[in-house]
């Protein structure tokens, strides 16, 4: 079935409607019909004609125009047909059109509810090992036609059944059964995904948030703290925010020994975001354990979860996680509500935490733990992304709190 752009002239459309023998169409006075109603009559006719057919109209109109309603006309489609398959572990198969790289890849399928910022989402190291399904109109969920993948249906499946392993392939040599077997054998729980996205050697970061994007332009940031940032898949905008608050930032790999960090005599240490299961990286948990209590610490996302484990708590895998820039968070200290940017499939179990560790924030959608603090150990953490790139800027004051934590420890 082929469709071409319809002529916009009502004088041209009127004889076409008559040719369709559509009782709703008007030939002689078509020019007086509102244009949207005339188009509607075509749609109604095509659905009532007894066949599932798409009306094809040639753009070049001869005389009174030529109408072709025969769907068997052998015309080559001017667009790319489905050449890829997404096979989920539940056995469902979704045909799609590919672009960019070809081949076969396996990963966990998650959905993101952000309104915008898909460039940052697609380049976020925290999504390593995952496929991202965009769910907002004009990004990836604009409705369904005969050649589309219904991304809304996939999202509903993930919400109902939880995140699913999927295989995306452009290779015709692979059967559906073979791809399904790959999906069902691959596991993401217990896999170290941090080591694949971390830097390989320390480096100094000095770039600030660009003036065009700086939303605290009137603040005078002259703190001059030295912060060591562990790269578990760190987003550059976290580093930019630290630099914008006046920090000298040294970024170190995920395997960097705690002893080497303490030799640098930093004013504070940041444990960054990152992909995967925090329980799969015991070496990182041990590094966090060796540093807390010696210098002020700030954990973000994966760093938050590693802090929870280092303090003696437990983490667990969520049904489908939190991915998006519209998650409401409650600050239990001041009663403030923040709309936050989040990206994680694991969470800290607050019931497993020892005495003295305070839950400072909760996700207002499901009441899961979204922030921790321990005054005795000079530490703070957030499960979400205060740099908010993309996302609202409600949580940026968390960087100021980290500055105050470092300042207080020097007294």
TrEMBL record:
Annotated protein name in UniProt: carbamoyl-phosphate synthase (glutamine-hydrolyzing)
Entry-linked NCBIfam families: CPSaseIIsmall, PRK12838.1
Annotated SUPFAM superfamilies: Carbamoyl phosphate synthetase, small subunit N-terminal domain, Class I glutamine amidotransferase-like
Domain Carbamoyl-phosphate synthase small subunit N-terminal, chain residue ranges per copy: 82-169
Catalytic activity: L-glutamine + H2O = L-glutamate + NH4(+)
HAMAP family reported in the protein's UniProt record: CPSase_S_chain
Gene Ontology CC terms, in alphabetical order: carbamoyl-phosphate synthase complex
GO MF term (any one): carbamoyl-phosphate synthase (glutamine-hydrolyzing) activity
Known EC number: 6.3.5.5
Pathway: Amino-acid biosynthesis; L-arginine biosynthesis; carbamoyl phosphate from bicarbonate: step 1/1
GO terms for biological process, alphabetical: 'de novo' pyrimidine nucleobase biosynthetic process; glutamine metabolic process; L-arginine biosynthetic process
Keyword annotations from UniProtKB, A to Z: Amino-acid biosynthesis, Arginine biosynthesis, ATP-binding, Ligase, Nucleotide-binding
Family: Belongs to the CarA family.
Subunit structure: Heterodimer composed of 2 chains; the small (or glutamine) chain promotes the hydrolysis of glutamine to ammonia, which is used by the large (or ammonia) chain to synthesize carbamoyl phosphate.
Organism annotation: Musa troglodytarum (fe'i banana)
């Amino acid at each position: 079935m082929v469709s071409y752009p319809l002529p916009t002239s009502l004088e041209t459309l009127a004889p076409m409607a008559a040719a369709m023998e559509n009782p709703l169409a008007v030939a002689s006075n078509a020019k007086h019909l509102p244009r949207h109603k005339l188009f509607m009559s075509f749609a109604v006719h095509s659905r009532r004609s007894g066949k599932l057919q798409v009306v094809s109209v040639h753009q070049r109109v001869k005389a009174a125009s030529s109408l072709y309603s025969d769907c068997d006309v052998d015309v080559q489609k001017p667009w790319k047909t489905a050449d890829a398959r997404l096979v989920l572990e539940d056995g469902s198969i979704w045909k799609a059109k590919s672009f960019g790289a070809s081949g076969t890849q396996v990963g966990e399928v998650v959905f993101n509810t952000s309104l915008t910022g898909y460039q940052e989402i697609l380049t976020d190291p925290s999504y390593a090992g995952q496929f991202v399904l965009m769910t907002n109109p004009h990004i990836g969920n604009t409705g369904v036609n005969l050649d589309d993948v219904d991304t809304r249906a996939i999202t509903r499946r993930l919400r109902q059944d939880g995140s699913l392993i999927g295989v995306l392939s452009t290779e015709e040599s692979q059967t559906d059964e073979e791809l399904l077997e790959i999906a069902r054998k691959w596991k993401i729980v217990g896999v170290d995904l941090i080591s694949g996205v971390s830097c390989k050697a320390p480096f100094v970061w000095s770039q600030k948030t660009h003036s065009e994007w700086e939303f605290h332009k009137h603040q005078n940031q002259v703190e001059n703290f030295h912060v060591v940032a562990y790269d578990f898949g760190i987003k550059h905008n976290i580093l930019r925010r630290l630099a914008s608050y006046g920090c000298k930032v040294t970024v170190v790999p995920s395997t960097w020994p705690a002893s080497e960090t303490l030799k640098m005599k930093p004013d504070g240490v940041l444990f960054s975001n990152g992909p995967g299961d925090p329980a799969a990286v015991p070496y990182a948990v041990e590094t966090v354990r060796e540093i807390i209590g010696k210098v002020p610490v700030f954990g973000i996302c994966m760093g938050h979860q590693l802090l929870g484990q280092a303090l003696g708590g437990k983490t667990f895998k969520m049904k489908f996680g939190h991915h998006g820039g519209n998650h409401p968070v409650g600050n239990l200290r001041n009663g403030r509500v923040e709309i936050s940017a989040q990206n994680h499939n694991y969470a800290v179990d607050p019931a497993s935490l020892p005495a003295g560790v305070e839950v400072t924030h909760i996700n207002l959608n499901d009441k899961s733990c979204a922030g921790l603090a321990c005054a005795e150990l000079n530490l703070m953490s957030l499960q979400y992304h205060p740099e908010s790139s993309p996302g609202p800027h409600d949580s940026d004051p968390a960087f100021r709190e980290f500055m105050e934590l470092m300042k207080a420890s020097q007294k």
